[in-house]
Structure formats: structure tokens, C-alpha cells
From TrEMBL:
Residues 1-29 form the signal peptide. Keywords: Signal. The keyword Signal applies. This is Fibronectin type-III domain-containing protein. It comes from the Bacteria. It comes from Nannocystis punicea.
Amino acid sequence: MSFRTYSPFAAMLAPLAALLALAPASAGAGGTRSFHLGDFDDFDAGEAEGAAIEGSGKVTVGLVPARGEVKGAASVFSCVADPKDKGAVYLGTADASGVQRIKLATPSKAGAAEPAASKLAELPGAVVSAMTTLPGGDLLAATLPGGTIHRIDGKGKVSEFAKLQVEQIWALVPHEGRLLVGTGPKGELFSLDLNGKDPKVVLDSDEKDILAVLPVGKDVVVGTSPGAKVLQVGPASDGVLVHDFAGDEVRALALVDGGLVAAVNDFTDRGLSSVQALTKNLNRTSLVGQPAEGTLDATSGGGGAQSSADVFFVALGPKRDLARASEATWESWLHKDKQYFTSLLAGAKGSEVLVAASQQGKVYRVRGRRDVATVADLDERQATALCRLGDGAVLATTGDGAGAYRLAVAPAQKARYRTKVLDAKQPSTFGAVYLRGKGLTLRARSGPSEEPDKRWSEWKPVTLKKEGDALAGGLSLPTRRFVELEVTLAEGGELRDVQLFYAPENLAPLVAGVDVAHPEFELTDDDEPEGKLTIKWKAEARDDDDLVYEVRVRPEGTGEKEWISLSGTEPVTKKEYKWDLGSVPDGVYEAQVIASDEPSNGVSRAARDEVVSAPFVIDHKRPAIDGVKVSGLSITGTASDEGGQIHDVAFSVDGGPFRAASPSDGLFDTGREGFQLTLPEPLAPGRHRVVLRARDSFGNIGSHAVIAEK
């Protein structure tokens, strides 16, 4: 019976469509996929303008940043309110060390020119690291490097207030009629009178730098680096350890209702000092006298080193008892990987605290370990400092681009949230969008690049209609790979969830090759192998579609109509198929594998790819052994096979284990091979039965028995 007319095989023939029709449906069937934003991290990856991203996973109306222009500097590093003007603030700049003054009363209207800062004074050094004001209104400013504190009057006249024998000044804080100065690199806290005289070291710590200084009643707490310690200094204490964090620096401290808050940064590089962190933050070399190795960015806190940042809170009780801080548990209210916290500012009420961060110029509002919100997302990459103005408003400064922002409650038309650029991986049709929330309007745009540019489409309004518990709309955008959504929130509006459906252009799967492996066996096997041939292939879904396969075979040299489906109506999901050869005639065949992405795209949009294997042999015939000659203990003969090559010849004496015979010409590589063997000693005198076994490359075994006599 020929292969072509063998009815059981012919009955297995089925079209590919029938095979795929039984494939299990997968998520996104028909090629449909979706983007989903629903929690804090999802929303925080986007950009907010006047919108707050709540830790509970929703966007609400928040603070709108009114920007002021700061010229002639690369960064603003410090700020302090002007005591004589409730809406004005002094800015300490970097790269061009100096002081500028700006007044930002209300958010500027769309299209209006940004208020500009005016230069008050130029100072020596690289950065104004700390500022405060004296009771009479004069400004004190410290610059790095060096230990000089400059006095600046309202007209910009600069004089030396004090000069300390230190290399860095990190904090200037009035307290109990004196001025406290946090310094480095010896970790000293100085106290001076308000005329810059009578300097005293009130704390000589084991740390290198005192970065933060915070009065708590008559006492003071300080934050240090590189040990990340909080120390208490007061009439009855001299550097008492309040808490030792598992980090590298306590960058900032704040006192809120009910407790104490600390911003702690943790660097992977344990040798990184605070001055090196600042150096890399500002990209300056003059601070340390050696080239900077990097800049502070979204993945490098403190300067080029992988970092994480935490905001910790400890309850002090109604009397603000600092002794509790060394006994009670410090709770982590906010943790961010690849982040660096730069400043803290106590909020206007309760236990609220604002946190300035390096990543994407974010300002977080924290009210507890479950109440976190992103309340400002500044244009520059780094938020460097926060200060409270005389009228109660908050001002934030920025680095990696000098700027100052007054943060105020957003007018309705200013509260906007823009998603991160969403990547569909390939050009796509964008369809329905669902917003869950209230008081929302929507715009969308698409483009061919990860960064929006002139090739992107214009923002297009999307009409939203109530559908169930969501606001639904349809996007009509050019078919592009990238898409971005912008949601505007009216007063009292909120956004809780976004889902956008899209369908990428379908890419055909790719079958890289088909390999056919003969039945496997070992030399030590005494039986023929299982009669199955393994067909394996490599296949790739280039657009992450789910794939199914059809496996077909035909005799070599026959036409397209001779293909026989092995897999039948059962979808093949693995990248191999074992073919049972029990009733398959001998011959030369070829196999074909067809890959289809129908489970992800449906029948009409499915794409496929197919590859045919190299010809292969199916051989059921057993080898023959003839021409056997026995001469004493030596035996020679010939093994032959019609369908393939001789794989090995072995022998067994008197029912013992089989041992390998040797090919006469040194290797078994053809269909007819001579062999030779010598019976092993010791062997008892007399007649011995020797079974000869020849095996071909398919594992078929032929045998022959002879008698040898010793």
C-alpha cells in the first residue's frame, strides 16, 4: 500500500482554519489590546499640572505651579522668605553663586510672560548652600566651598558676617537668640550670636556632615551624613543619639503636629559623601577639585549612585517629647527606589509634610503611610528646595535648569493630567477609551516617536459619554506606535481609572526552521526504540501574539495536494510534535510546520508563516547479517541495511551482556559494513553460542546466531 492511498492518514487531512477554530480564546482576541492606568505608580509616571496624584490611586485637583524665570544660573539650591514682603522670596543659586529675589503672587494666565527674578547680590563660590534672615530683615547666605557666611542688606550690599574654619556649611537656623550652623567635613554644629560673633561648637559629632538642623523647643535635632543619624542637642544633652537609620544621610527634618519627620537617602555607593552628592547634583568640579562622575537624575540619587529614599515619621506626643523618638517606632511614610529626596516642609495643617524629590521634579504631599500624593510635577528634572512664604504659600526651587514655582490651589482650567507616552510597540489603531471619575474632559494625540515632536498629531478633543460607571469615548487618531492622553479636571473633579483599547498592525509569525530527529536510543539499549519521530521547530511571534501550529508531511517530490495533516483538528501549542510511525510506509519524506496567530487576531486578521524541512528517511526494515566466519575465537561478517546506515554491531556470548564489535574499516558510516570481534577471555573450553546484533540509524535491530568453539 502506498503512502498516498493509505486511508487512515488521508482521513487526518484538515484545513488549517478548522484546526485553529478549536484554539482556546486568549485575552485580547482579535488583535485587541489595552493600556490600563489604575494605581499611584501608574499615574505618577505621567505629568500633572495643578493635579494631585493620590496614593489611593486617583488624580484630583491639586496645586498649580506658577513659574518664575531665573536667569544667569544653572540651578536654584536654597530659598528663604523675604520677611518684609509676604509674597517675595530670596533664591540661592548655583554655578553662578548668588542671591536673586522674586515675587510670585498668583499663577500667571495662559500666554502671559513669566515673572522674572532680579539679582540682589553676587557671591564667591559655586553654590549658595543655605540662607536665613536676621530680625532686622538682612539676609544671611553661606556659600560652598568654604566657611564664609555673607550678610546682604536690602540694597544688595554684601559684607562678611562670619568665617568659620570649615569646608562646607549646610544649614543656617536662628534659635533662642543665636544662629546655629551645620557644617562639614568634621560634623560640627556651631552657635554664633546674631552679630556673627562668639562662635561656639555646641556639637562635635563623629559624622562628617551635619545637613539638617531643626529646633524643637529649647532643644535642637540634627541630621547627619554618612551615618544617617538624628542627634539631639540641648541644655541637658550634647549629641544624644535619637535614631540611627539604615541609610547614608538624613537630608532634611521637619516638625509636624504629633511628631518628627526625616528624609533619609540611601546610596549604593557607601563611600559617597554629601559634598560629592552636591557636586554631582550641580555638575560642578570646583567643590571638590576633581572631575564629577555624573549628575543627579531619575536613576542616580545623590550623584551617579543608585539610591533609594524614604520619609520616616515618629510620634512625639502632645508635648513633643524627643525622648520618645529614641524609643518609639519610626514609620516609613514614603519609599521610592531610584530617587533622592532633597527637602521637607511641614504642611499647613495636621501631620502633612511636603517632600521635594530629584526624579522628574516631583513634589509629594505625605499625610501618613497610606496618604501620599504627587501635588506638583515641575518642568525641570530636580526639585531642590521648599520654603514657606510670608502669605502661607509654598515655593519650590529647581535644579538642572534654574526655576522657582509658587504652588497654589489650581483654578479649574489649570488642573490637567497627562499620561506618560504609551507604547503600542508598533503602529496601531486606537479605539475606545474609558475614564472612571467625574468632572473630566479629554484630549489625545499619537505619533511615531517616544518623545513628542513635530511629527505627532495635534491634540484632538475626545467626546465623552456616560456608559455604565465610566465616561466613554472613541479616539480617531492617525495610526501610530505611540499615544498620549491629557485629562482636564474641573473643580471637584477626580480621575480613578483609565483604559484605552488599541489594535496593533498584525505581524506575521516567523518560523525559523524545522528539524526532524530520528528515534532516540543508547548503545546499551537491547530493544528497539519507540516508533516515534520527533519534529521540532523554532517560531517567534514578533508582536507577542499567541501562536498555534499545524504539522503536515508528504513523500518527497510530491505536490501540494499530497500534504497530510498530522495534528488533525487538535491545535498544537508546543514547538514539537511526536509522529507515531507504526503504520507509516518506508520512504523519504518532508515535514511542513505552519504557524498562525489566529488566537490573538481572529480568523480574518490572522497571519501565518510556514517552513518545510529537509528530506528525511523513514525506515522500518531491520539490518541483515551475512558472510559470517568463525575462526577459533575470532568472528568476522557483514551487516547491511537497505534504508539507512549501519549504526553499530554488537555481540553476546552465552546470553551475557552485549559488547561492541569493531568496524573493519574503522567506522560505521554506510549501509553495508564489515565487522570483526574476538571473544573475550577467560572462556571455558567447549562450544559457545554467540548472538550477533546489527542496528541501523533508525534503531531497527537484526540478529544472527553462530557457534564458536574453544
